[in-house]
Amino acid sequence: MRLLVVGVCLVLSTTGARAQSRWTFSAGPEWGLVAPQTHLWGLRLRAEYDLTKPNSIFGLRFEGAARWSPTQSYFYSENLATWSGTEQRNDLMFGLSTSLSPLAHASPIAPYVTFGVYARQLWQNGSSSFAFQGSPVWGSPPGTRARGDIIATLGVGLRARVAGRMFQVELRGIHDQYGLTFGSRLPF
Q1: How far is residue 188's CA from residue 171's CA, in Å, rounded to a whole number?
Q2: For the whole model, what pTM was predicted?
């Protein structure tokens, strides 16, 4: 009887060690161009749930993400025009993403490409102005604007297995922003 209990425990413990979590959490900076040579930044947090087997060549994931940025001011002037404003931008996104990783099983380091479609709710707080020299100023008055839209993203990344844990770094274009996130699969 002891041999049976020890055998079952051994099988369950080795099977559990091989099972991978389907959850990946990542975070990192995000930036976008609002005027020539003027970037505003924020922080993107993202949670991904694998709908397909983790580490497969083709992946399908459900994702939820949020972006926060502090209030930032900008001013840029050139010979013909002037841009200025203050902005704070926050959003929530939910959607599906696919990935293609041809080296998923071949090595501990696997590059991949990803494409996603998301529903996004965006909140922008601030004001902006734009003027050509010798013409009236065009802009938006101070206030908060909200809008919902469907957006697509495209990105490249690299997954690496280090000490039995999966880590990833990913560069994505998210509509008019770019983000670099660092993440890891949860150990459970």
Answers
A1: 26
A2: 0.79
